[in-house]
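Database export, one record per block. Field names are fixed; values are copied verbatim from the stored entry.
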Amino acid sequence: MSDDMNITTGKDTDYRLFKTANSRQTLFINMTDENSVNTARSQHNNENLYISVCSYNAPDPSAPRTYPLYFRIISDSPEKTQTSTIEACYYISDNFSVSQDCIEVIYAGGGNGMNAGAAGFAADGNSKSSNNAADTNSTTAETVILIPPIVFAGQPTPLMPVINYELARQLVEDVTENIDIDIYHRSYLIKLPNSFSPQTGSYVIPLTIKELLYM
């Protein structure tokens, strides 16, 4: 598997919708095929690249989808985002019985202007901005926390975004208000790890919890 992400369904294929920020056109790439991922990067200068958070059983929009658990953390500063992400990771580990080694974090950077650092949007290209006040600040910083479906024996189900939404609300109540609860629609996209975001002037960085502690 490519080092880009460790989200896996335990299968030999991991089809994701792939698109750029400036195009409505989407295509599928197999994240387990490193050559395909690198080709997609090269064709678009590795900039402004997004993939679906869910995995498809086949390169077909109507194919069954398997979702990880995922949570978007956003605030008006990298320090707040870092603290909230660490707190959320420890909460998930303690309360959801998920080993810390199975929790992945993507630092999606920060930027100037509304939604400049947004982690993702709908596959149809329409922005799905949060009601979180941090999105309207001049600077935002964000992470995405991911628990691969193989960790909790996740299966294709259209109910997963609803389940994830309820868990996100639980984190808002118990951990931090910096959880974005407006991202649980079926075609949510996240920035491709290790791609470059011109809006933020930084790369999208996959992190372990240990790396996040000392970031």
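Remark 1: The domain at 15-213 is CATH 3.90.920.10 (DNA primase, PRIM domain).
Remark 2: Helices lie at 34-43, 78-95, 160-174, 209-213.
End of record.
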